[in-house]
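Slide 14.
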Amino acid sequence: MEQQVAEMAQELAETTGGAQGEAGQQPHAYTLSEDVGLTLYRDMVLGRRFEDKCAEMYYRGKMFGFVHLYNGQEAVSTGVIQAMRPKYDWVCSTYRDHVHALSMGVPARQVMAELFGKEAGCSKGRGGSMHLFSKEHHLLGGYAFIGEGIPVALGAAFSSRYGRDVLGDANSDAVTAAFFGDGACNNGQFFECLNMAQLWKLPILFVVENNKWAIGMAHDRATSNPEIYRKAAAFGMVGEEVDGMDVLAVRAAAQRAMDRARAGGGPTLLECLTYRYRGHSLADPDELRDEQEKAFWAQRDPIGALTAQLTRRGLASPGDLAAIDREEEARVTDAVEFALAAPEPQPSELKRYIWAEN
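Slide 15: predicted structure.
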């Protein structure tokens, strides 16, 4: 295990956020203003507080079903989605989708109500934890089957290209981000979608949230080449590896990919090296991962890293950040109170929302 941890440290030390493949290596930009920095911080804190509250509600018997938390991976969601155009670009998620929804602007009340199976939820209480959806916020859904959302995201990217090239809409340049884990990268549809995206130069960003574990399977044991971003080269696609615990590095890499996609340069495969702090789901006792490995990644906490950046650059004081912490804690508490009080779906409407309504 000590050797594995040393290899992790070496891999992260070599990760510069530079693009690999046709684009060659590029240094990532760390341009940061007070407004941007605090927005990134607030978004990550909301995600962390929300997930912590979900764990509390689950263990108190208030929340049921499978619940997969995002703790530790916040820099990926925030970094990518904050580089996108709100309510214009699209996102496809996985079963670990709460924080993606929050980053896309879905109100915390709606997300929490969905987790409680209430009618006020963003999926009307029909989706639960793994199937959050919001057309208004351009969230194409969370998908429980591994890699299932990648073809859906590909379809959204195709629609954008079709609008421009066939329907003649010069402003049709929306980009789609498909989030998925390292475990999805040995599935056939992953490779099929990469091939089609590059063939048609579709405006899509394939975001690999490589947290090193696919349920209980260590990533290095499951693939012949653990460096996922290198798989892009087989299709002539730009592949990039980035420190997924550094929100500024993720945001810079995502912005490069978005700019390239909007300019007609096609897709990007972005591998974010990250780590989940909890088990696969709240039903997972998390006994397979070594404590030394967990401690290594805990020292790289993405919120703590951004806190250090903001204070060192004089963009925020500890008091400023503490105030944001309190505000987001209150937002999450309000979301729980709202969800608990919200009405259950009516049995008479069991078959509603199966078909489109006029």
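Speaker note: The chain has twelve helices and eight strands.
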